[in-house]
């Protein structure tokens, strides 16, 4: 009796099943050797910042710098002034006392 390929060290494909945890290759990627370069763990930090700092952030060579630092993530504490619900995205207007910014979810 077959139990979907989970007996006798058989693979799912031996019995026509698929493995939901198996990822398919990305067709957009042309090279298997291409890998995304990750920052070292010591450089992956959360940077609290204001809206003014975000708006004044510089971006040389595609690298976002806030006050001379390259954050992995930022934390923004602000008040929601308005919310606009769309079919594909929600738009929020945020204000923190230093500036006003519009973000999409």
Q: Keywords for this structure?
A:
105 residues; 5 strands; globular
Write a structural description.
The chain has 105 residues and is mainly beta. Helices cover 5% and strands 25% of the residues. The chain has one helix at residues 51-55, and strands at residues 46-49, 73-76, 79-85, 90-95, 100-104. The longest helix has 5 residues, at 51-55. The radius of gyration is 23 Å and the shape is globular. The relative contact order is 0.14. Residues 9-30 have a biased composition (Polar residues). InterPro entries: NA-bd_OB-fold. Residues 1-41 are annotated as: Disordered.
Rough outline: globular
Low-confidence stretches: none
Distance between the termini: 50 Å
Order of helices and strands: EHEEEE
Helical stretch tally: 1
Portion in beta strands: 15-25%
- Overall residue-averaged pLDDT value: 75
InterPro entries: NA-bd_OB-fold
Biased composition (Polar residues): 9-30
Region (Disordered): 1-41
């Amino acid at each position: 009796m077959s139990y979907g390929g989970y007996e006798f060290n058989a693979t799912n494909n031996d019995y026509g099943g698929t493995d939901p945890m198996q990822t398919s290759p990305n067709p957009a990627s042309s090279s298997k050797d291409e890998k995304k370069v990750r920052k070292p763990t010591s450089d992956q930090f959360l940077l609290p910042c204001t809206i003014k700092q975000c708006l004044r952030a510089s971006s040389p060579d595609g690298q976002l710098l806030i006050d001379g630092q390259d954050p992995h993530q930022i934390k923004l504490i602000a008040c929601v002034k308005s919310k606009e619900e769309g079919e594909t995205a929600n738009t929020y207007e945020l204000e923190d006392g230093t500036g006003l910014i519009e973000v999409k979810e």
